[in-house]
Design goal:
It holds the Pfam family adh_short. This is SDR family NAD(P)-dependent oxidoreductase. Its EC number is 1.-.-.-. One of its GO terms (molecular function) is oxidoreductase activity. It contains 6 helices and 7 strands. It is of the alpha/beta class and 225 residues long. It has a 7-stranded parallel β-sheet, sandwiched between helices. Helix 2 links the parallel strand 2 (26-32) and strand 3. Helix 1 packs parallel to helix 2 and helix 3 packs parallel to helix 4 (98-123).
Length: 225
C-alpha cells in the first residue's frame, strides 16, 4: 500500500485531501496539532475501508518534526508528502505584530521546508514520489491587509519552484497548488472575509487538486465558483 503524509490533516482541506487519497489506496498519515481532529479524520477514513494513522505534530518545533518524520519513515515507504498546514493573520501592516510574523513564517515556510528535508531520503527511494505544496493564491500576488501572510506564501512558492528545477527528472516531483479562500473555520475568528459561504468548499478544492496533481506541476484555483 502506498503511503501519504499530510500536515494539517485533521480538518478543512487537509482532511478532504486525506479522505480522497485514502480512496485512491493510500495509507494516510495525518499530522497536526489538534489530536481529536486527527483521530476523528482517521476514524472516518477507516470506517470507509481506508487506512489512516495520526501523529501529533507542531510545525513550530523542529525537534517534533524530526521525531515524527523518523517514526513514519522508519516504518513506511513514503510516496507522497502533502505540505498543507498553514496559519494566517490579517489586517494592516502597521498593526501587525512580530509574534504574528514569526508564527506565519515558522508554520508556512520553515516547518514544511524542515519536514520535507527530513522525509526526503525516503521520498527519493521511489521513482514516482511527489511533494504537493498547498500554497494559496497569496503566493501569486500581493493582497491588501495580507502583507506578511503573502510574504510567507511567496517564500514558500519560491522554495517549491526552486526544487522543481533542482529535482527535475529525479524523484520526488514537486507540485505547487495555489488556491483562493475557502469556506472553512479558518475565517471564524476573522472579519477579513465578509461572506465565506461565497467561497469554494474544501471538498471541491480537494477534488480539483487530486484530479490534477499527478499530471500538473502547478495548479491554480481561484476563490470564486
Amino acid at each position: 500500500m502506498n503511503t501519504a503524509v499530510i500536515t494539517g490533516g485533521g480538518s478543512g482541506l487537509g482532511k478532504e485531501l486525506a479522505v480522497l487519497l485514502s480512496k485512491k489506496g493510500y495509507h494516510v498519515h495525518l499530522l497536526g496539532r489538534t489530536e481529536q481532529n486527527l483521530k476523528n479524520t482517521a476514524l472516518e477514513i477507516k470506517s470507509n475501508g481506508g487506512e489512516a494513522t495520526f501523529h501529533s505534530l507542531d510545525l513550530l518545533s523542529y525537534e517534533t518534526i524530526q521525531k515524527v518524520a523518523k517514526e513514519v519513515s522508519d516504518r513506511f515507504k513514503i510516496e507522497l508528502l502533502v505540505n498543507n498546514a498553514g496559519v494566517g493573520y490579517f489586517g494592516s501592516f502597521t498593526e501587525s505584530t512580530d509574534q504574528e510574523m514569526e508564527e506565519m513564517f515558522s508554520t508556512n515556510v520553515f516547518g514544511p521546508i524542515r519536514l520535507t528535508k527530513e522525509l526526503l531520503p525516503s521520498l527519493r527511494k521511489h521513482k514516482k514520489s511527489a511533494v504537493l505544496n498547498i500554497i494559496s493564491t497569496a503566493g501569486l500576488r500581493g493582497k491588501k491587509h495580507e502583507s506578511l501572510y503573502v510574504a510567507s506564501k511567496f517564500a514558500f512558492r519560491g522554495w517549491g519552484e526552486s526544487l522543481q528545477k533542482e529535482f527535475e527528472g529525479t524523484p520526488p516531483r514537486f507540485i505547487n497548488a495555489f488556491m483562493g479562500g475557502m469556506n472553512t473555520p479558518f475565517w471564524d475568528k476573522s472579519d477579513h472575509v465578509g461572506n465565506p459561504e461565497k467561497l469554494r468548499s474544501p471538498s471541491e478544492i480537494a477534488e480539483i487538486i487530486i484530479n490534477q496533481y499527478e499530471t500538473e506541476n502547478e495548479i491554480v484555483i481561484e476563490s470564486k465558483k
